[in-house]
Design brief:
about 200 residues; alpha/beta; Helicase, Ruva Protein, domain 3; Dna Topoisomerase Vi A Subunit, Chain: A, domain 2; 2 domains; four-stranded parallel sheet; 8 helices; globular
């Protein structure tokens, strides 16, 4: 490997922390950054500092925010008795883009994954139970990913919340629009059959 000045090596190492950034991409980005005009580099540095200092988790829903409670939790036009549970803050962005969900959200910050040492306690599920009880939630929509861990988390949530008299629903999964049956895996086909609707 070529020998670079220590600051560039440090930058390359830092960039490799980002998902999808391997050594070659980190090298290319690092050289792009060091050759940028100073004002652009200063803007990146300031943006990173602001994010590091001013972004935190909402005390109500666990979403990333710069105000507490977050903008979604403050929105009185949303139905407080309807909560959609997601794995990550970026899931809220994807779901809210549709503009047809009028409830509020709760972010787990992950899923149950014994292989990675993540159990129910690490997800702060007691906060969700408290919220369900305090806010009089009538329906909890579980929107975890359709993975083994996501399904295990959905089942655990159902066992935890259903005794409180709350309706638990799960986002439907199945065949994508424009997809071919012959390329679908067994789990996708099974979920498509289970989620079928009358025409």
């Amino acid at each position: 490997m070529a020998r670079y000045p220590k600051p560039i090596m440090r930058l390359m190492e830092a960039l490799s922390y980002l998902p999808g950034i391997g050594p070659k991409t980190a090298e290319r980005l690092a050289f792009h950054i060091v050759t940028m005009p100073k004002y652009k580099l200063d803007n990146i540095i300031k943006a990173l500092q602001v994010v590091g200092q001013d972004i935190f988790h909402c005390s109500t829903c666990n979403n990333l925010t710069d105000v507490d409670p977050c903008i979604i939790c403050q929105d009185n036009s949303r139905e407080p008795q309807l909560i959609c549970v997601v794995q990550d803050p970026k899931d809220i962005v994807a779901l809210d883009r549709l503009q047809n969900f009028k409830g509020k959200y709760h972010v787990l910050q992950g899923v149950i994954s014994p292989m990675e040492g993540v159990g129910p306690d690490e997800l702060g599920l007691e906060d969700l139970v408290d919220r369900v009880q305090k806010e009089g939630v009538t329906e909890l929509v579980v929107a975890t990913d359709p993975t083994v861990e996501g399904e295990a988390t959905a089942m655990y949530l159902t066992k935890l919340i259903k005794p409180l008299g709350v309706k638990i629903t799960r986002l439907a999964y199945g065949l994508p629009m424009g997809g071919d049956l012959e390329y679908a895996d067994e789990m996708t086909l099974q979920q498509a059959f289970e989620g079928r609707k009358e025409l």
